[in-house]
Design goal:
This protein has one helix at 2-17; strands spanning 23-39, 48-60, 65-80, 83-99, 104-122, 124-127, 135-147, 152-161, 173-186. It is mostly beta strands.
């Protein structure tokens, strides 16, 4: 419950802080993830594919810079042998974008993720949520392109987890992931 309250408060603060912006667009996004877990004991994990989907706000600060807060459901985790570690998060990135005149954008910013589900699956499913930290804080950076006449765009970014997502005191683990997707901005104004 407290994580949902934090999420709502974060979105409200971002919205109230940007109400004076001249050009605000709302959009939706969907795409593919390739995530893994990197840890300090060299225990190898393979990448796991998943999906992400959510909402975004695109707020023009001036002609070249924009702020893009998002709220995204993201299927993350890793694979080890025949076991899938399925970690599902509600992620809230807040990206600063530099917009080129031709529709291309570069972007970077912080991201906070709230763990909503954690399962280990190897024929049977086992709840492992207590083995993981409920918060995953990190940095996101990448590129995007919008075709302004259609309001559709593509997005590619790398998410670098900064905090230890493992509840084990003996091993430090961080999430790493690549996301590629498409987005659509409603009533897009450039």
């Amino acid at each position: 419950m407290k994580y949902y309250l934090i999420t709502i408060l974060t979105v409200l603060v971002m919205t109230v802080g940007t109400v004076n912006a001249q050009n605000i667009n709302i959009g939706t996004k969907i795409g593919l993830n390739s995530y893994t877990i990197n840890n300090d004991n060299n225990n190898g994990f393979d990448s796991k594919l998943g999906l992400h989907a959510g909402l975004l706000g695109h707020i023009h600060l001036d002609a070249q810079f924009a702020l893009q807060p998002e709220i995204v459901y993201s299927m993350q985790g890793a694979k080890s042998g025949n076991t899938n570690f399925n970690l599902d998060y509600i992620n809230i990135p807040v990206l600063v974008q530099y917009m080129f005149d031709n529709g291309f954008r570069i972007q970077a910013g912080p991201q906070i993720g709230f763990l909503v589900r954690a399962k280990a699956e190897n024929g049977a499913s086992q709840d492992i949520k207590d083995d993981f930290n409920s918060i995953d804080a990190g940095l996101s950076f990448g590129v995007s392109y919008i075709h302004t006449p259609s309001s559709f765009g593509i997005d590619a970014r790398y998410n670098l987890g900064l905090n230890d997502i493992s509840e084990s005191s003996s091993v430090q683990s961080n999430s790493r992931g690549l996301q590629v997707g498409i987005f659509y901005l409603f009533n897009h104004r450039h």
